[in-house]
Amino acid sequence: MQDFLFRNRKRSPLYKLFQEEFPDLWEEYFARLFRSTGYLPLYDLVSEIYRVFEVFETFKEEEATLIKILEVIKNFEREGMNNPGDFLRLAYDEISGEAEWNIDVPAGINAVKVMTIHKAKGLGFPVVILILYGEQSRGFKYILDEKEEGVYLLKINQRIAEASDPLQRAYEEERMKEVVNRLNTLYVGFTRPEFELYVIGVSGKKTQFPMDLLQESAHVAVGKKAPARNLEAADQAYLHLYHPTQQVDFFSFSSFEELNIEERQRGEFIHRVLYFIEYLDEDLESRLEELIQQIKNESNMAYPVDTIKRELLGFLLDESVKPYFVRKPGRVIRREQDFSDLEGNLLRMDRVIIDEDRVMVMDYKTGGDKKVEERYISQLKNYMRILKDLYQGKTVEGMIAYVDLKEVVRIN
Fold first, then answer.
1. What span, in angstroms and rounded, lies between the C-alpha atoms of 253 and 226?
2. Are residues 307 and 405 in the same domain?
3. Cα 296–chain centre separation
4. Is residue 341 part of a domain?
5. Which one of 49, 201, 264, 365 has the largest count of C-beta atoms within 10 Å of its C-beta?
């Protein structure tokens, strides 16, 4: 079989060559399945593949995964699709199709969760092992160029860009967007752990992103070693990430309030629920109940659903908050969006409401203590400065939204 693959590695289609060289195997295992493709529903076809190749008997330890594949196919068919090609495209979609493939671990089980960085966004774990591979930029299929007279798709590579200043600027702008997206993803990965982070870098022959940023950090002392206990809120653990021109420090804790663990966890729980609320729809109450139950199961936190739902309903329907959760022509919402200041520090904003003439940044706060409000205001003004640079010509406002107190503090 190895010899067959090497001899025919540049010929296609490979299955026809296999049929010619191994007619008995083809007839026994593949012929009926091949003829059924496009006629049998996808679920039935895969079930027949399982039977012919005896996968449950051969791979007993993979039973959960094999059943999950059938569940995903069943959900796929519920959407009115039944095409093997469309299903394969869904399977290869790392972002939109990712949640479909997740095998949930029952709540209360002490287990390791394996996921991509995209899937981990918004979640936190006591210990994180982050595996990074060197990434090589493959260029762009096309660049979207928007002008007043219309929108153009530009096919530009590095060599073409060098021949024209406007094309060079468009190419560099697109390249910078790619770099920023990569850095944002890296930042998400670094900020998932609560106590411990282990980074494993798998590098190739050439030093590529993100290894070019991380390779020096192995030679740098990262400050005093944390004692063998839970970190207090006031403690700071630094991760030094090196950039060719400046050093960027990520903090494991950005909040300095003296919160006990229960209050902090409750605050994170409420932030997580609010993250999923883009607009207030008619089914808000049932939507909240569903979200709270889902996040409760994921986090294994014993919060009463009705109590949290009642508190969030009171907050969202408050006359001072509600206008920023309703749909409006031209309105764009950014939730837990990372923005960079002039020094390169990444700051995550809870909710940014972008209207045609103004931008509002909303920062959620839980609990009933307003003793550190000056610090909140200072933080919010920093957010506003960043947004003012990004959205020039728009009025920028800020709001500290106290969820439990049902109060807001506005900053112009």
1. 13
2. yes
3. 20
4. yes
5. 365
Q: What backbone phi and psi angles, to 5 degrees, belong to 88?
A: -65, -35
Q: Which of 222, 251, 280 is the last residue of a domain?
A: 251
Tens digit of each residue's pLDDT (9 = 90 or more) over 187-207: 899 999 988 888 888 877 777
Residue 330 lies in a domain: yes
Residue 149 sits in the same domain as residue 236: yes
- The reply to whether 219 and 275 lie within a common domain is no
In the numeric block, the tokens 């520090």 are attached to 345
In DSSP terms, 209 is beta-bridged to 135
d(CA 354, CA 351): 10
Q: Which two tokens stand for residue 30?
A: 């593949």
| Average of per-residue pLDDT across 295-317 | 82
In this structure, what token pair is assigned to residue 121?
């966004």
CA dihedral of residues 366, 372, 376, 379 (deg, nearest 10): -130
Three-state DSSP state, 361? strand
- Distance (Å, rounded) from C-alpha 16 to C-alpha 1? 15
Task: Indicate the pLDDT class of residue 176, thresholds 50, 70 and 90.
Answer: confident
The answer on 351 and 387 residing in a single domain is: yes
pLDDT at 31 over 90: yes
Q: Which domain holds residue 403?
A: 254-412
- Structural tokens at position 155: 């096919």
Residue 314, domain CATH: 3.90.320.10
Encoded tokens for 235: 């403690």
Judge whether 63 lies within some domain: yes
Q: Let me know if residue 214 belongs to a domain.
A: yes
Task: Report the number of distinct structural domains present in the chain.
Answer: 3
pLDDT classification of 18: cutoffs 50, 70, 90 = very high
Give the whole-angstrom CA distance, residue 18 versus residue 346: 53
Task: Work out the burial of residue 146: count CB atoms within 10 Å of its CB; fewer than 13 is exposed, 13-18 middle, 19 or more buried.
Answer: exposed
Could you report the per-residue pLDDT of 140-172, keeping only the tens digit for each?
777 887 778 888 888 888 888 888 888 888 888
| Residue type, position 134, single letter | G
Q: Which of 111, 21, 29, 134 is nearest to 64 (CA)?
A: 111
Query: In whole angstroms, how far apart are CA 16 and each of 7, 40, 285?
Result: 14, 21, 57
Q: What is the pTM of this model?
A: 0.41
pLDDT, tens digit, 9 for 90 and up, residues 240-276: 444 444 444 444 334 434 445 677 778 888 988 999 9
318 and 397 belong to one structural domain = yes
Structure tokens at 67: 């059943």
Q: What is the pLDDT of residue 238?
A: 43
